[in-house]
Design a protein that fits this description.
- The chain is built from 15 helices and 20 strands.
- The relative contact order is 0.11.
- By secondary structure, the chain is of the alpha+beta class.
- The protein has 5 domains: about 90 residues, Uridine Diphospho-n-acetylenolpyruvylglucosamine Reductase, domain 2 (2-Layer Sandwich), CATH 3.30.43; about 120 residues, Uridine Diphospho-n-acetylenolpyruvylglucosamine Reductase, domain 3; about 110 residues, Alpha-Beta Plaits, CATH 3.30.70.2190; about 80 residues, Alpha-Beta Plaits; about 55 residues, no CATH class.
- Helix 7 packs across helix 9 and helix 13 packs parallel to helix 15.
- About 35% of the residues lie in helices and about 20% in strands.
Length: about 475
Protein backbone atom coordinates (compact mmCIF):
# COMPACT_ATOMS: atom_id res chain seq x y z
CA UNK A 1 0.00 0.00 0.00
CA UNK A 2 1.29 3.50 -0.78
CA UNK A 3 1.75 6.16 1.89
CA UNK A 4 -0.84 8.91 2.03
CA UNK A 5 1.68 11.31 0.46
CA UNK A 6 2.27 8.90 -2.45
CA UNK A 7 -1.47 8.35 -2.88
CA UNK A 8 -2.25 12.06 -2.97
CA UNK A 9 0.56 12.66 -5.46
CA UNK A 10 -0.73 9.92 -7.76
CA UNK A 11 -4.31 11.23 -7.62
CA UNK A 12 -3.12 14.80 -8.22
CA UNK A 13 -1.40 13.62 -11.37
CA UNK A 14 -4.74 12.20 -12.57
CA UNK A 15 -6.99 15.22 -11.85
CA UNK A 16 -4.88 18.12 -10.57
CA UNK A 17 -3.90 18.76 -6.95
CA UNK A 18 -6.74 21.21 -6.24
CA UNK A 19 -9.25 18.39 -6.79
CA UNK A 20 -7.73 16.02 -4.25
CA UNK A 21 -8.97 16.29 -0.67
CA UNK A 22 -6.78 14.78 2.03
CA UNK A 23 -6.67 16.99 5.15
CA UNK A 24 -8.50 15.43 8.14
CA UNK A 25 -10.85 18.38 8.64
CA UNK A 26 -11.90 18.16 4.95
CA UNK A 27 -12.29 14.38 4.92
CA UNK A 28 -14.85 14.53 7.74
CA UNK A 29 -17.49 15.60 5.20
CA UNK A 30 -17.09 12.30 3.36
CA UNK A 31 -17.10 9.83 6.25
CA UNK A 32 -20.86 9.17 6.24
CA UNK A 33 -24.03 9.19 4.16
CA UNK A 34 -27.63 9.11 5.41
CA UNK A 35 -27.05 6.07 7.65
CA UNK A 36 -25.26 5.22 10.89
CA UNK A 37 -22.25 3.89 8.95
CA UNK A 38 -18.97 5.81 9.45
CA UNK A 39 -15.54 5.49 7.86
CA UNK A 40 -13.00 8.20 7.01
CA UNK A 41 -11.31 7.70 3.62
CA UNK A 42 -7.61 8.35 3.13
CA UNK A 43 -8.36 10.76 0.29
CA UNK A 44 -11.21 12.10 -1.85
CA UNK A 45 -10.87 12.90 -5.53
CA UNK A 46 -13.22 14.96 -7.73
CA UNK A 47 -12.71 14.26 -11.45
CA UNK A 48 -14.29 16.52 -14.09
CA UNK A 49 -15.16 13.97 -16.80
CA UNK A 50 -15.00 10.35 -17.90
CA UNK A 51 -11.34 10.53 -18.90
CA UNK A 52 -10.22 11.81 -15.50
CA UNK A 53 -12.49 9.29 -13.79
CA UNK A 54 -10.87 6.48 -15.75
CA UNK A 55 -7.40 7.71 -14.80
CA UNK A 56 -8.37 7.70 -11.11
CA UNK A 57 -9.78 4.17 -11.35
CA UNK A 58 -6.64 2.88 -13.08
CA UNK A 59 -4.44 4.65 -10.54
CA UNK A 60 -6.25 3.03 -7.60
CA UNK A 61 -6.09 -0.38 -9.27
CA UNK A 62 -2.36 -0.04 -9.88
CA UNK A 63 -1.76 0.97 -6.26
CA UNK A 64 -4.09 -1.67 -4.80
CA UNK A 65 -6.21 0.99 -3.08
CA UNK A 66 -9.96 0.49 -2.46
CA UNK A 67 -12.19 2.95 -4.36
CA UNK A 68 -15.71 4.02 -3.36
CA UNK A 69 -17.94 6.07 -5.72
CA UNK A 70 -20.04 8.84 -4.16
CA UNK A 71 -22.82 11.10 -5.42
CA UNK A 72 -24.50 13.61 -3.12
CA UNK A 73 -24.12 11.42 -0.03
CA UNK A 74 -27.88 11.25 0.58
CA UNK A 75 -27.97 7.45 0.29
CA UNK A 76 -29.65 5.39 2.98
CA UNK A 77 -27.80 2.07 2.93
CA UNK A 78 -24.17 3.03 3.55
CA UNK A 79 -23.27 2.61 -0.12
CA UNK A 80 -21.13 5.76 -0.34
CA UNK A 81 -19.19 5.06 2.87
CA UNK A 82 -15.60 3.90 2.31
CA UNK A 83 -15.81 0.63 4.25
CA UNK A 84 -12.11 -0.14 3.70
CA UNK A 85 -11.06 3.53 3.65
CA UNK A 86 -8.88 4.15 0.58
CA UNK A 87 -10.22 6.68 -1.94
CA UNK A 88 -13.70 8.16 -2.35
CA UNK A 89 -14.45 9.35 -5.89
CA UNK A 90 -17.02 12.14 -5.85
CA UNK A 91 -18.99 13.06 -8.98
CA UNK A 92 -19.84 16.53 -7.60
CA UNK A 93 -17.99 18.40 -10.38
CA UNK A 94 -19.87 16.64 -13.18
CA UNK A 95 -23.16 18.54 -12.92
CA UNK A 96 -24.09 19.79 -16.39
CA UNK A 97 -27.33 19.19 -18.25
CA UNK A 98 -25.76 18.62 -21.65
CA UNK A 99 -28.90 18.37 -23.77
CA UNK A 100 -32.69 18.46 -23.59
CA UNK A 101 -34.17 17.03 -26.79
CA UNK A 102 -37.96 17.64 -27.02
CA UNK A 103 -38.22 15.63 -30.24
CA UNK A 104 -36.74 12.37 -28.94
CA UNK A 105 -37.94 13.34 -25.45
CA UNK A 106 -34.62 12.62 -23.79
CA UNK A 107 -32.11 14.57 -21.74
CA UNK A 108 -28.38 13.91 -21.53
CA UNK A 109 -26.95 14.79 -18.12
CA UNK A 110 -23.84 14.31 -16.06
CA UNK A 111 -24.06 12.24 -12.85
CA UNK A 112 -23.76 15.17 -10.45
CA UNK A 113 -26.96 16.83 -11.71
CA UNK A 114 -29.63 17.00 -9.00
CA UNK A 115 -32.71 14.96 -9.78
CA UNK A 116 -35.05 17.95 -9.63
CA UNK A 117 -32.87 20.00 -12.00
CA UNK A 118 -33.75 17.71 -14.92
CA UNK A 119 -37.44 18.58 -14.70
CA UNK A 120 -36.64 22.25 -14.14
CA UNK A 121 -34.79 22.39 -17.43
CA UNK A 122 -37.30 20.21 -19.29
CA UNK A 123 -40.48 21.98 -18.18
CA UNK A 124 -40.00 24.72 -20.77
CA UNK A 125 -40.62 22.05 -23.39
CA UNK A 126 -43.68 20.74 -21.56
CA UNK A 127 -41.71 17.71 -20.33
CA UNK A 128 -40.61 16.27 -16.99
CA UNK A 129 -38.59 13.45 -15.41
CA UNK A 130 -40.98 11.38 -13.22
CA UNK A 131 -38.78 9.51 -10.67
CA UNK A 132 -38.83 11.80 -7.62
CA UNK A 133 -37.10 10.61 -4.44
CA UNK A 134 -38.00 12.67 -1.38
CA UNK A 135 -34.46 14.05 -1.49
CA UNK A 136 -34.82 15.03 -5.15
CA UNK A 137 -33.63 18.60 -4.58
CA UNK A 138 -30.30 17.24 -3.34
CA UNK A 139 -29.81 13.67 -4.59
CA UNK A 140 -28.08 13.27 -7.94
CA UNK A 141 -28.93 11.26 -11.01
CA UNK A 142 -25.72 9.24 -10.69
CA UNK A 143 -26.73 8.09 -7.22
CA UNK A 144 -30.28 7.44 -8.46
CA UNK A 145 -28.86 5.14 -11.14
CA UNK A 146 -26.66 3.35 -8.61
CA UNK A 147 -29.60 2.63 -6.29
CA UNK A 148 -32.38 2.39 -8.91
CA UNK A 149 -34.16 5.11 -6.95
CA UNK A 150 -37.93 5.43 -6.86
CA UNK A 151 -40.13 8.05 -5.24
CA UNK A 152 -43.78 8.90 -4.62
CA UNK A 153 -44.64 9.40 -8.31
CA UNK A 154 -43.27 6.07 -9.53
CA UNK A 155 -46.41 4.00 -8.92
CA UNK A 156 -47.92 4.42 -12.39
CA UNK A 157 -44.83 5.06 -14.52
CA UNK A 158 -41.94 3.20 -12.90
CA UNK A 159 -38.60 3.88 -11.23
CA UNK A 160 -35.15 4.95 -12.50
CA UNK A 161 -34.72 1.67 -14.42
CA UNK A 162 -37.72 2.57 -16.57
CA UNK A 163 -36.39 6.02 -17.50
CA UNK A 164 -32.70 5.49 -18.25
CA UNK A 165 -32.02 4.77 -21.92
CA UNK A 166 -28.24 4.83 -21.94
CA UNK A 167 -25.19 5.25 -19.75
CA UNK A 168 -21.60 6.28 -20.27
CA UNK A 169 -19.70 4.44 -17.57
CA UNK A 170 -16.17 3.96 -16.38
CA UNK A 171 -15.89 0.29 -15.48
CA UNK A 172 -14.04 -0.98 -12.45
CA UNK A 173 -11.24 -1.87 -14.88
CA UNK A 174 -10.87 1.81 -15.82
CA UNK A 175 -12.43 1.54 -19.30
CA UNK A 176 -14.96 4.04 -20.71
CA UNK A 177 -17.99 2.27 -22.21
CA UNK A 178 -21.53 3.11 -23.41
CA UNK A 179 -24.37 0.86 -22.28
CA UNK A 180 -27.60 1.39 -24.22
CA UNK A 181 -28.22 4.63 -26.12
CA UNK A 182 -30.99 7.11 -26.84
CA UNK A 183 -33.75 4.50 -27.10
CA UNK A 184 -35.06 2.57 -24.11
CA UNK A 185 -34.51 -0.80 -25.75
CA UNK A 186 -31.44 -2.05 -27.60
CA UNK A 187 -30.39 -5.47 -28.97
CA UNK A 188 -28.22 -7.89 -27.05
CA UNK A 189 -27.88 -8.48 -23.34
CA UNK A 190 -29.20 -5.64 -21.24
CA UNK A 191 -25.97 -4.50 -19.59
CA UNK A 192 -27.58 -1.11 -19.04
CA UNK A 193 -30.23 -2.81 -16.92
CA UNK A 194 -27.61 -4.81 -15.04
CA UNK A 195 -25.65 -1.67 -14.24
CA UNK A 196 -28.66 0.27 -12.89
CA UNK A 197 -29.08 -0.66 -9.25
CA UNK A 198 -25.61 -2.19 -8.96
CA UNK A 199 -24.86 0.26 -6.13
CA UNK A 200 -21.49 1.43 -7.40
CA UNK A 201 -19.98 -2.06 -7.40
CA UNK A 202 -19.47 -2.35 -11.19
CA UNK A 203 -18.33 1.13 -12.21
CA UNK A 204 -19.06 4.84 -12.17
CA UNK A 205 -21.64 6.64 -14.30
CA UNK A 206 -20.27 9.68 -16.16
CA UNK A 207 -23.22 10.47 -18.48
CA UNK A 208 -26.88 9.46 -18.41
CA UNK A 209 -29.53 9.57 -21.14
CA UNK A 210 -32.92 9.81 -19.45
CA UNK A 211 -36.40 9.52 -20.94
CA UNK A 212 -38.76 12.47 -20.49
CA UNK A 213 -42.56 12.47 -20.54
CA UNK A 214 -45.14 15.23 -21.07
CA UNK A 215 -46.21 17.23 -18.03
CA UNK A 216 -49.73 15.99 -17.16
CA UNK A 217 -52.41 18.43 -18.34
CA UNK A 218 -54.52 17.86 -15.23
CA UNK A 219 -53.65 16.88 -11.65
CA UNK A 220 -55.96 16.20 -8.70
CA UNK A 221 -54.61 15.59 -5.18
CA UNK A 222 -56.64 14.11 -2.33
CA UNK A 223 -55.90 13.63 1.36
CA UNK A 224 -57.93 10.94 3.12
CA UNK A 225 -57.89 10.54 6.91
CA UNK A 226 -58.51 7.14 8.53
CA UNK A 227 -58.96 6.10 12.17
CA UNK A 228 -56.32 3.36 11.82
CA UNK A 229 -53.38 2.36 9.63
CA UNK A 230 -55.12 -0.92 8.84
CA UNK A 231 -58.13 0.84 7.31
CA UNK A 232 -55.87 3.09 5.24
CA UNK A 233 -54.00 0.00 3.99
CA UNK A 234 -57.31 -1.58 3.04
CA UNK A 235 -58.17 1.47 0.96
CA UNK A 236 -54.89 1.19 -0.95
CA UNK A 237 -55.60 -2.33 -2.14
CA UNK A 238 -59.25 -1.54 -2.78
CA UNK A 239 -58.50 1.48 -5.01
CA UNK A 240 -56.07 -0.45 -7.20
CA UNK A 241 -58.40 -3.46 -7.31
CA UNK A 242 -60.97 -1.12 -8.89
CA UNK A 243 -58.60 -0.61 -11.81
CA UNK A 244 -57.34 2.84 -10.77
CA UNK A 245 -53.56 3.33 -10.80
CA UNK A 246 -52.84 6.73 -9.24
CA UNK A 247 -49.68 8.67 -10.04
CA UNK A 248 -48.88 8.50 -6.33
CA UNK A 249 -50.32 6.92 -3.21
CA UNK A 250 -48.48 7.77 0.02
CA UNK A 251 -49.28 6.98 3.65
CA UNK A 252 -48.27 8.46 7.00
CA UNK A 253 -49.20 7.18 10.45
CA UNK A 254 -50.08 9.12 13.60
CA UNK A 255 -46.48 9.66 14.71
CA UNK A 256 -45.52 11.09 11.32
CA UNK A 257 -48.58 13.33 11.29
CA UNK A 258 -47.61 14.64 14.72
CA UNK A 259 -44.07 15.43 13.55
CA UNK A 260 -45.20 17.06 10.29
CA UNK A 261 -47.73 19.29 12.06
CA UNK A 262 -45.13 20.35 14.62
CA UNK A 263 -42.67 21.23 11.86
CA UNK A 264 -44.79 22.53 8.97
CA UNK A 265 -48.36 23.10 10.24
CA UNK A 266 -49.91 21.76 7.03
CA UNK A 267 -53.29 21.20 8.72
CA UNK A 268 -53.56 17.44 8.37
CA UNK A 269 -56.79 16.17 10.03
CA UNK A 270 -56.48 16.21 13.81
CA UNK A 271 -56.69 12.84 15.55
CA UNK A 272 -56.21 10.72 12.42
CA UNK A 273 -54.53 7.36 12.87
CA UNK A 274 -53.24 7.57 9.31
CA UNK A 275 -53.54 9.75 6.23
CA UNK A 276 -53.44 8.63 2.63
CA UNK A 277 -52.20 11.11 0.03
CA UNK A 278 -53.43 10.19 -3.44
CA UNK A 279 -52.59 12.03 -6.65
CA UNK A 280 -54.16 11.37 -10.05
CA UNK A 281 -53.16 12.90 -13.35
CA UNK A 282 -54.07 12.65 -17.01
CA UNK A 283 -56.20 14.36 -19.66
CA UNK A 284 -58.70 16.98 -18.58
CA UNK A 285 -61.71 15.29 -17.04
CA UNK A 286 -60.07 11.90 -16.56
CA UNK A 287 -58.18 12.82 -13.40
CA UNK A 288 -61.28 14.45 -11.88
CA UNK A 289 -63.43 11.41 -12.68
CA UNK A 290 -60.92 9.02 -11.14
CA UNK A 291 -60.55 11.28 -8.11
CA UNK A 292 -64.30 11.04 -7.51
CA UNK A 293 -64.05 7.25 -7.58
CA UNK A 294 -61.07 7.28 -5.20
CA UNK A 295 -62.93 9.58 -2.80
CA UNK A 296 -65.92 7.25 -2.73
CA UNK A 297 -63.70 4.20 -2.22
CA UNK A 298 -61.90 5.84 0.71
CA UNK A 299 -65.20 6.51 2.45
CA UNK A 300 -66.28 2.95 1.70
CA UNK A 301 -63.11 1.70 3.44
CA UNK A 302 -63.68 3.78 6.57
CA UNK A 303 -62.21 7.21 5.89
CA UNK A 304 -63.38 9.86 8.35
CA UNK A 305 -62.57 12.73 5.99
CA UNK A 306 -61.41 13.22 2.39
CA UNK A 307 -60.10 16.56 1.16
CA UNK A 308 -59.46 17.55 -2.44
CA UNK A 309 -56.79 20.23 -2.96
CA UNK A 310 -58.47 23.34 -4.35
CA UNK A 311 -55.45 24.68 -6.22
CA UNK A 312 -51.72 24.25 -6.85
CA UNK A 313 -50.81 26.05 -3.61
CA UNK A 314 -52.86 23.67 -1.47
CA UNK A 315 -51.50 20.69 -3.41
CA UNK A 316 -47.95 21.90 -2.79
CA UNK A 317 -48.68 22.26 0.94
CA UNK A 318 -49.97 18.69 1.18
CA UNK A 319 -46.86 17.43 -0.59
CA UNK A 320 -44.63 19.59 1.59
CA UNK A 321 -45.82 17.57 4.54
CA UNK A 322 -45.11 14.27 2.82
CA UNK A 323 -41.73 15.26 1.38
CA UNK A 324 -40.65 16.71 4.71
CA UNK A 325 -42.03 13.94 6.89
CA UNK A 326 -38.76 12.11 7.49
CA UNK A 327 -36.62 15.09 8.56
CA UNK A 328 -39.59 16.38 10.59
CA UNK A 329 -39.18 13.38 12.88
CA UNK A 330 -36.32 15.29 14.46
CA UNK A 331 -39.14 17.02 16.36
CA UNK A 332 -39.79 13.75 18.21
CA UNK A 333 -36.34 12.23 18.79
CA UNK A 334 -32.66 13.16 18.37
CA UNK A 335 -32.06 10.29 15.93
CA UNK A 336 -33.97 8.06 13.56
CA UNK A 337 -33.03 4.99 11.55
CA UNK A 338 -34.91 4.40 8.31
CA UNK A 339 -35.78 0.90 7.12
CA UNK A 340 -36.54 0.14 3.46
CA UNK A 341 -38.47 -3.00 2.56
CA UNK A 342 -41.20 -4.13 0.17
CA UNK A 343 -44.25 -6.31 0.74
CA UNK A 344 -47.25 -7.25 -1.41
CA UNK A 345 -50.05 -4.67 -1.15
CA UNK A 346 -52.40 -7.35 0.12
CA UNK A 347 -50.13 -7.85 3.16
CA UNK A 348 -49.71 -4.18 4.09
CA UNK A 349 -52.16 -4.20 7.01
CA UNK A 350 -50.75 -7.43 8.46
CA UNK A 351 -47.18 -6.17 8.17
CA UNK A 352 -48.06 -2.89 9.84
CA UNK A 353 -49.53 -4.84 12.76
CA UNK A 354 -46.32 -6.83 13.08
CA UNK A 355 -44.21 -3.67 12.93
CA UNK A 356 -46.33 -2.20 15.73
CA UNK A 357 -45.72 -5.35 17.79
CA UNK A 358 -41.95 -5.05 17.15
CA UNK A 359 -42.16 -1.47 18.40
CA UNK A 360 -43.89 -2.58 21.60
CA UNK A 361 -41.47 -5.42 22.36
CA UNK A 362 -38.35 -3.39 21.55
CA UNK A 363 -39.49 -0.34 23.51
CA UNK A 364 -38.60 1.86 20.53
CA UNK A 365 -41.11 4.14 18.84
CA UNK A 366 -41.51 3.45 15.12
CA UNK A 367 -43.05 6.00 12.76
CA UNK A 368 -44.25 4.93 9.33
CA UNK A 369 -44.26 6.88 6.08
CA UNK A 370 -44.24 4.92 2.87
CA UNK A 371 -45.07 4.45 -0.80
CA UNK A 372 -48.27 2.56 -0.07
CA UNK A 373 -49.25 1.98 -3.69
CA UNK A 374 -46.31 -0.33 -4.41
CA UNK A 375 -45.86 -1.71 -0.89
CA UNK A 376 -42.53 0.04 -0.33
CA UNK A 377 -42.30 0.51 3.46
CA UNK A 378 -40.15 3.02 5.34
CA UNK A 379 -40.50 2.34 9.08
CA UNK A 380 -38.44 4.90 11.01
CA UNK A 381 -37.04 3.80 14.35
CA UNK A 382 -36.76 6.75 16.75
CA UNK A 383 -33.93 6.72 19.29
CA UNK A 384 -31.22 8.66 21.10
CA UNK A 385 -27.73 7.48 20.18
CA UNK A 386 -26.42 8.86 23.48
CA UNK A 387 -28.25 6.14 25.40
CA UNK A 388 -25.97 3.15 26.14
CA UNK A 389 -26.71 0.26 23.82
CA UNK A 390 -29.24 2.21 21.74
CA UNK A 391 -27.59 1.75 18.32
CA UNK A 392 -27.36 -2.03 18.78
CA UNK A 393 -31.04 -2.22 19.80
CA UNK A 394 -31.97 -0.18 16.75
CA UNK A 395 -30.08 -2.48 14.37
CA UNK A 396 -31.69 -5.55 15.93
CA UNK A 397 -35.12 -3.92 15.58
CA UNK A 398 -34.43 -3.07 11.94
CA UNK A 399 -33.36 -6.66 11.29
CA UNK A 400 -36.62 -7.90 12.81
CA UNK A 401 -38.61 -5.64 10.47
CA UNK A 402 -36.62 -6.89 7.49
CA UNK A 403 -37.34 -10.45 8.52
CA UNK A 404 -41.08 -9.67 8.60
CA UNK A 405 -40.91 -8.25 5.05
CA UNK A 406 -39.30 -11.44 3.76
CA UNK A 407 -41.67 -13.72 5.67
CA UNK A 408 -44.66 -11.87 4.22
CA UNK A 409 -43.53 -12.48 0.64
CA UNK A 410 -41.57 -9.26 0.15
CA UNK A 411 -37.95 -8.32 -0.31
CA UNK A 412 -35.10 -6.37 1.32
CA UNK A 413 -35.18 -3.09 -0.55
CA UNK A 414 -37.48 -1.01 -2.68
CA UNK A 415 -35.19 1.89 -3.50
CA UNK A 416 -32.49 2.48 -0.89
CA UNK A 417 -30.37 -0.51 -1.85
CA UNK A 418 -28.61 -3.21 0.13
CA UNK A 419 -25.31 -1.40 0.64
CA UNK A 420 -23.42 -2.20 3.82
CA UNK A 421 -26.39 -2.37 6.16
CA UNK A 422 -28.42 -5.24 4.71
CA UNK A 423 -25.83 -7.36 2.98
CA UNK A 424 -25.86 -10.00 5.72
CA UNK A 425 -29.60 -10.50 5.08
CA UNK A 426 -29.09 -11.50 1.44
CA UNK A 427 -28.95 -15.25 2.30
CA UNK A 428 -32.58 -14.97 3.44
CA UNK A 429 -33.51 -14.67 -0.22
CA UNK A 430 -30.60 -16.09 -2.20
CA UNK A 431 -28.61 -19.32 -2.11
CA UNK A 432 -24.82 -19.48 -2.28
CA UNK A 433 -25.13 -20.30 -5.99
CA UNK A 434 -27.34 -17.24 -6.56
CA UNK A 435 -24.89 -14.94 -4.79
CA UNK A 436 -21.91 -16.44 -6.61
CA UNK A 437 -23.61 -15.81 -9.97
CA UNK A 438 -24.22 -12.17 -9.01
CA UNK A 439 -20.63 -11.79 -7.84
CA UNK A 440 -19.32 -13.11 -11.17
CA UNK A 441 -20.98 -10.18 -12.92
CA UNK A 442 -18.46 -7.93 -11.18
CA UNK A 443 -15.66 -9.73 -13.00
CA UNK A 444 -17.17 -8.71 -16.35
CA UNK A 445 -16.76 -5.07 -15.36
CA UNK A 446 -13.28 -5.58 -13.91
CA UNK A 447 -14.26 -5.48 -10.24
CA UNK A 448 -12.67 -8.84 -9.47
CA UNK A 449 -9.91 -7.58 -7.16
CA UNK A 450 -12.23 -6.75 -4.27
CA UNK A 451 -11.20 -3.09 -4.41
CA UNK A 452 -14.23 -1.47 -6.07
CA UNK A 453 -16.78 -0.34 -3.46
CA UNK A 454 -15.93 -3.33 -1.28
CA UNK A 455 -18.12 -4.66 1.55
CA UNK A 456 -21.36 -3.70 -0.21
CA UNK A 457 -24.37 -5.75 -1.36
CA UNK A 458 -22.85 -9.20 -0.78
CA UNK A 459 -22.38 -10.91 2.61
CA UNK A 460 -18.98 -10.81 4.29
CA UNK A 461 -16.57 -13.12 2.53
CA UNK A 462 -17.89 -12.19 -0.95
CA UNK A 463 -15.37 -9.59 -2.02
CA UNK A 464 -14.81 -8.07 1.42
CA UNK A 465 -13.30 -10.67 3.69
CA UNK A 466 -14.62 -10.98 7.21
CA UNK A 467 -14.18 -7.33 8.14
CA UNK A 468 -17.31 -5.40 8.87
CA UNK A 469 -19.69 -8.22 9.82
CA UNK A 470 -22.72 -7.03 11.73
CA UNK A 471 -23.34 -9.16 14.81
CA UNK A 472 -26.95 -8.03 14.91
CA UNK A 473 -27.46 -9.05 11.31
CA UNK A 474 -25.87 -12.47 11.83
CA UNK A 475 -28.00 -13.18 14.89
CA UNK A 476 -31.08 -12.16 12.91
CA UNK A 477 -30.26 -14.48 10.00
CA UNK A 478 -31.51 -17.54 11.87
CA UNK A 479 -31.15 -21.22 11.17
CA UNK A 480 -33.11 -21.22 7.91
CA UNK A 481 -30.67 -18.91 6.07
CA UNK A 482 -28.49 -20.36 3.31
CA UNK A 483 -24.96 -20.94 4.61
Amino acid sequence: MPTRRELVAALAEAVGREWVVWRPEELATYEFDGTVERSVPHAVVLPANAEETARVVRTCRALGVPLTPRGAGTGLSGGAVAARRGVVLSTARMRRVLEVDPVDRVAVVEPGVANLEISRQAVGFGLCYPPDPSSQAACTIGGNVAENAGGPHCLALGVTQNFVCGLEVVTAAGEVRWLGGRALESPGFDLRGAFIGSEGTLGIVTKVVVRLVPVPPSVVTLLAAFPTVGEACGAVSSIIARGIIPAAMEMMDRLCIEAVEARFAVDYPEGAGAVLLVELDGPDGQAAAEAARVRAECFEQGASEVRVAKDAAERALLWKGRKGAIPALGQLAPNYYIVDGVVPRSRLAAVMERVAEISRTSGLRIANVFHAGDGNLHPLILFDEREPGAPARVLETAAAIMRVCVEEGGTLSGEHGIGAEKREFMPWLFSERDLAAMARLREVFGADAGLFNPCKVFPAGTGCGEAGKSAAALRAAGEDAYV
